[in-house]
Specification:
With 321 residues, the chain is of the alpha/beta class. It has 2 domains: 34 residues; 270 residues, Peptidase S8/S53 domain (Rossmann fold, 3-Layer(aba) Sandwich), CATH 3.40.50. Helix content is 31%, strand content 17%. The strands form 5 sheets. It has a 7-stranded parallel beta sheet with strand order 5-7-4-8-9-10-11, with helices on both faces. Strand 8, helix 4 and strand 9 form a beta-alpha-beta unit. Helix 2 crosses helix 5 and helix 5 packs across helix 6. The radius of gyration is 21 Å and the shape is globular. The termini are far apart. The relative contact order is 0.14. About 5% of the residues have low confidence.
Length: 321
């Protein structure tokens, strides 16, 4: 009996060693093939069930980022993204040279907008950190962190952004009242607006995501297990879910940190929409439908997001090349 137990233990140890060797060999093979092994810290890009911030994820609950890293956009004039946020620090090395316009107004805190921009597209000077895209040019519109939105300012600057060639707008800001002026502007605009549903874990959608317009994509957040984030609002009327919890970002001091919030989910969706814009001549309605039809489905999320949709960059790339 003791001999049988010993043999089983030896077999178990040998199996573990062989599996460890397999992982090492696979990693080295990928490197030799020219692939970048996505950092284990960024589950949102490539989730193999690794543990991040003490939470072991669920395999393939991610956006399906190519393992080669950031996807390069063509410099064809359709690589411009407008970010409406707290402002962006374009002086850090990862974002230096990516700005084509920013609001004259400056804020004391540019951390939030900088994180958003760095998630979408960062210069390749970040070591293991990978953004979704590279080659993006940014327009930065500053909004104050207040309950009342300066409607005239936002509409004026968004109009300028559209004239400068922006086709997609990342809207991380939220407010809890209906603005007819902003609604009418968005309705008449040819741009696509990617809008956060808001933080709070309520069955509710904040504005502007709540406007029922065909050129708005509303976004909620999920964790690395594929569950509705405790930080995210939800509704079966929201268009798409994307990673939200324990997201690795670059801040305005050029440091890496983990953050949680639907703003970061919104950034992932904006990046995939920007890829579609760059590779096609689709209008905002077709861009939206292409992104949504290529989502993965997780039916246990049906009451949190329409049809249980989860963003899939991988499926979009397969669809449009």
């Amino acid at each position: 009996m003791k001999k049988e137990i010993l043999v089983k233990k030896i077999i178990c140890i040998v199996s573990l060693v062989m599996f460890a060797l397999f992982l090492i060999i696979r990693s080295e093979y990928k490197k030799k093939q020219g692939e970048v092994v996505c950092t284990e810290k960024q589950w949102a890009l490539f989730n193999e069930g690794q543990e991040v911030c003490g939470i072991k994820g669920c395999e393939d609950v991610d956006i399906g980022q190519p393992k080669s890293g950031a996807v390069q956009l063509d410099d064809n004039g359709r690589n411009i993204i407008c970010i409406v946020d707290s402002g962006i620090n374009f002086e850090i090395s990862q974002l230096n040279g990516t700005c084509i316009y920013e609001s004259e107004e400056k804020t004391k805190r540019m951390d939030h907008g900088t994180r958003i921009a760095g998630l979408i597209s960062a210069n390749d000077k970040s070591g293991d950190y990978k953004s979704v895209l590279s080659g993006v040019k940014f327009i930065s519109i500053v909004v104050d962190d207040t309950e009342i939105i300066d409607e005239n300012k936002i509409i004026s600057e968004l109009s300028e952004a559209e004239k400068m060639g922006a086709r997609v707008v990342n809207c991380s800001f939220v407010y809890n009242y209906y603005s007819e002026a902003i609604y009418n502007y968005m309705k008449d605009s040819k741009m696509l607006f990617i809008c956060s549903s808001g933080n709070g874990h309520n069955n509710n959608i904040m504005y502007p995501a709540a406007y029922d317009l065909p050129n708005i994509i509303s976004v909620m957040g999920i964790n690395s297990l594929g569950q509705c984030s405790r930080e995210s609002n939800y509704s079966d009327k929201i268009d798409v879910a994307a990673p939200c919890d324990n997201i690795l970002v670059i801040n305005d001091k050029e440091e890496l940190e983990y953050v949680t919030g639907v703003s970061y989910s919104t950034a992932f969706v904006t990046a995939v929409a920007a890829y579609i814009i760059n590779k096609t001549d689709y209008d905002s309605i077709k861009i939206k439908s292409t992104l949504l039809k290529n989502c993965n489905k997780r039916y246990e999320l049906n009451k949190y997001v329409e049809k249980g949709r989860i963003l899939s960059f991988e499926n979009v790339i397969k669809d449009i090349g």
